[in-house]
Amino acid sequence: MQTAIDTPVTLTAGAVAELKKLINEPGFDNSQYLRVGVKGGGCSGMTYVLGFDQKQDNDDEFEIEGIRCVMSRSHEIYLMGMEVDFQGGLNSRGFTFSNPNASKTCGCGTSFAV
C-alpha cells in the first residue's frame, strides 16, 4: 500500500474532513474504500469518479489521513498529481478536482479532456 507521500492524488483538509464525516455516519460499510477514478462521458470527454466502493483486482490501494483509497491502475495516467477539495460555500458546495493532466475542463468542473 502506498503512503501519503507517494499517493497518486491528494486530498485537502476540507476533503478529508468531509470524507471522514461520511465514513463516520451510522450504517457506513467499513469494508469499502474511497474510489478515485475516471469514466468516459461528460461534456469534455471524461468524468471524475469519487465514491465508496469495493476493491477490485486491478486496483492500487493507498491511504490518505486514515482514509483507505483505491484507483484502477489504468486511471493513474489521467489523475496523477490531482488534488481533491471540498467546497462548502453558498455558491458552490461539493467536491472539486484540480487536475494538472487536464488540457480542457468543462464549466461544471466534473469532466475534462487530456
UniProtKB/TrEMBL annotation:
Gene Ontology molecular-function annotations: 2 iron, 2 sulfur cluster binding; protein-macromolecule adaptor activity
Swiss-Prot/TrEMBL GO biological process terms: iron-sulfur cluster assembly
Domain Core: 9-109
Alphabetized InterPro entries for the sequence: ATAP, ATAP_core_dom, FeS_cluster_insertion_CS, HesB-like_dom_sf, IscA_plant_cyanobact
Domain of life: Bacteria
Pfam families for this protein: Fe-S_biosyn (PF01521)
PANTHER family: IRON-SULFUR ASSEMBLY PROTEIN ISCA, CHLOROPLASTIC
Protein name (Swiss-Prot/TrEMBL): Iron-sulfur-binding protein
